[in-house]
Amino acid sequence: MSAQTGSAAEYRPAGPLDLGPAIMFTPADRPERFAKGLERADAVILDLEDAVTPADRPAAREAVVAAWAERQQRGLDPERVVVRVNPVGTAAHEQDLAMLAQTGWRTVMLAKTESAEQVDAVVAGLGAHTRVVALCETALGIVASARIAAHPRVVAMMWGAEDLVASMGGTCSRTPDGTYRDVVRHARSSVLLAAAAHGAAAWDAVFLDLKDHDGLAAEARDAAAVGCAATVCLHPGQVPVIREAYRPESEAVDRARTLLAEAQRHPGAFSFEGAMVDEVVLAQARITLRRADAVDQG
């Protein structure tokens, strides 16, 4: 199949993108931060959108091209690098894709994703092996999130609070006590459910208050508890907070190991510590161990 043709039905499923719990944005016009970001975080997102002014985008694109050419010398693992491109329908988007076509970077975050057809366009422009992280941060994108997640080349789904609220004519995503407003929580849930339903990873939105580590930790713990694979961040100081939040407590890890060992002795449901254990409980135990391993490997 040509890289310039095809529809979602013709692409092979990519599977979920498993990079680790702490993924960090890095401005694409700051190439000196690329390798440093990878040393700190589980993966980096080279950002051509919000983190770079329009005037600086040409230089940022040159930096992304140079980073590909020098990836081995600079220790840039393509499997751990994502490039965020500007929204479909903008001149910057077309320029971003033309630049990426000169490189081998093929994990692309599409800002303000609003349809599966937009994902089709990105994959058609960069090739059938392109992996897309769909960033749903408008009302239309949230409403379409299930269709977007069903695209076979979508490997992760992310949502954004502030752009979403702005797209609805609002001004603030949080209440005075710092919690998300109901409509924003609904959007978060919609993207998480869409990702889970279609086998994509779910990435939680950035936490903007860089000094509030307690708030970040609470939000990241909640993200991990409901099935998010990662929380995206803006600063290296947030990385250890996220990793610790995603790490299951040692008691939970020990219990999961004991429970799974006990299950080897019982072919069906059984009682453990006074509670009935079935396959769902065992699945949760396996998830606990996978999360612990993912944090330790980071």
UniProtKB/TrEMBL annotation:
Annotated residues for binding of Mg(2+): 137, 163
Binding site for substrate: 84, 137
Assigned EC number: 4.1.3.34
Record key words, sorted: Lyase, Magnesium, Metal-binding
Cofactor (UniProt): Mg(2+)
Name the UniProt record assigns to this protein: Citrate lyase subunit beta/citryl-CoA lyase
InterPro entries: Aldolase/citrate-lyase_domain, Citrate_lyase_beta/mcl1/mcl2, Pyrv/PenolPyrv_kinase-like_dom, Pyrv_kinase-like_dom_sf
Molecular function terms from GO: citryl-CoA lyase activity; magnesium ion binding
Limits of the HpcH/HpaI aldolase/citrate lyase domain: 23-236
One of the GO BP terms on file: oxaloacetate metabolic process
Species of provenance: Micrococcus cohnii
Highest taxon in the source lineage: Bacteria
Gene3D superfamilies in alphabetical order: Phosphoenolpyruvate-binding domains
